[in-house]
Amino acid sequence: MPSPATWHSDPPEMPPLGPGGWARVAGKGTALGAVVFGGLLILLLIRFVEKPVHGTHRPWTPWVTQGVCRAAFLILGITHRTHGARMSEPGAVVANHASWLDIFALNARKRVYFVSKAEVAGWPGIGWLARATGTVFIERVAQKAVAQRDVFRTRLTAGHKLLFFPEGTSSDGLRVLPFKSTLFAAFFSDELRDLMHLQPVTVVYTAPDGADPRFYGWWGDMGFGEHLLQVLGAPRHGAVDIHYHAPVKVGDFADRKTLARYAEGQVRSAFPEVAELS
């Protein structure tokens, strides 16, 4: 989700929705809401049993999350493709960040738990979903660093794949912003360094034919509701490609900055050349 330090660029001009667009909004919006909030209810009921039996481990509820995310792309009409192998080793995933759709795109094929800024927990709707699906909320202040490292260690040793957006904000989907190395520091603690692997992942959106190439990007001061309506009301859709790069051992890198530079390079490597030049 966009952070207070938001990347800025003028958003694309969105054409007004005609009668057909509003009809698609009503149909797809109803279906998507039923799947998302129906799935949330099922997840919470399962978690009511899962938590006392398995604690931090979540052997059942991630299946619900994946099912909801896959169904969301079917409802929206966005093609979802994956490339490469998903990491099986314990550790974290880092990816570029372009849209609220990233949450669905990255959850649809891989069990991950997002790391998000603390204020997202209080957002209506999105906050409820984030908490229910096991999102880790962090405060980016030095005083919380030790506590957050302990939370990361607990979740990682429980087998959770934590997903970070090292850009620190979202972009228009046509570029990869420089990775901030701060969050990588937790991986180099004595408890985690030799345990963890890191998998870089690239998310690439292809806009619908004839639409602005930034159609799926959500950044800056763009309103969530307005962007959601445009996605729901579009007469045709494009695609999202998820590229899984080879995981690496954190212990093979000298420090957080070296690891951040490597991960950024891997994520950039799967971007079309035209996106890098935009």
Please, could you describe this protein's structure?
- The chain is an alpha/beta fold and 278 residues long.
- The chain has a domain at 80-223 and 237-277.
- The protein has helices at residues 19-54, 61-76, 101-107, 126-132, 145-157, 224-233, 256-269, 273-277; strands at residues 79-83, 91-95, 113-117, 136-138, 162-164, 197-206, 239-244, 248-249.
- Strands 1, 2, 3, 4, 5, 6, 7 and 8 form an eight-stranded mixed sheet that branches.
- Identify the overall geometry: globular
What would you report as the Rg, rounded to the nearest angstrom? 18 Å
- Mean pLDDT, rounded to whole units? 87
* Oligomeric assembly: single chain
* Low-pLDDT sequence parts: 274-278
Q: Span between N and C termini?
A: 22 Å
Helix content range: 25-40%
The percent range for strand residues is 5-15%
By helix and strand content, what is the structural category? alpha/beta
- What is the N-to-C order of secondary-structure elements (H for helix, E for strand)? HHEEHEHEHEEHEEHH
Describe the main β-sheet briefly. Answer: 8 strands, mixed
Number of helices: 8
The total count of strands amounts to: 8
